[in-house]
Amino acid sequence: MANLKTKVNLYLKANSKTWDNEKVTLQNNSDGNGDFISSWSYDIAEPTAEQIASYETAGNTAEALQTVLNNRAISYPRIQDQLDMQYKDLLNGTTTWRDTVAKVKLDNPKG
What we know:
Layout: H1 4-14, E1 24-28, E2 35-40, H2 49-53, H3 56-75, H4 79-92, H5 96-107
Antiparallel strand pairs: 1-2
């Protein structure tokens, strides 16, 4: 289930707006009712529960993609190491860097 922030962000993007912590605040009172919009000061209407719900599938897709991208970022070697691999590949005619990057992408497919 996509989180509220993701769905609100998609709603904002659909209305040509960007997330601004000064214009929207989400809250959870730990009362079992989950997250909700506690303040809204955009020049568009605050989304209804039905509008938020309509972003469930897109939100799940966006969150799954972000998970893949986060996993890739963790799995890639440090930039310094990648540059060293590229330099050595140029000198030796090898493909160490390309193979390393390809393995990270293969292990973490976008879907």
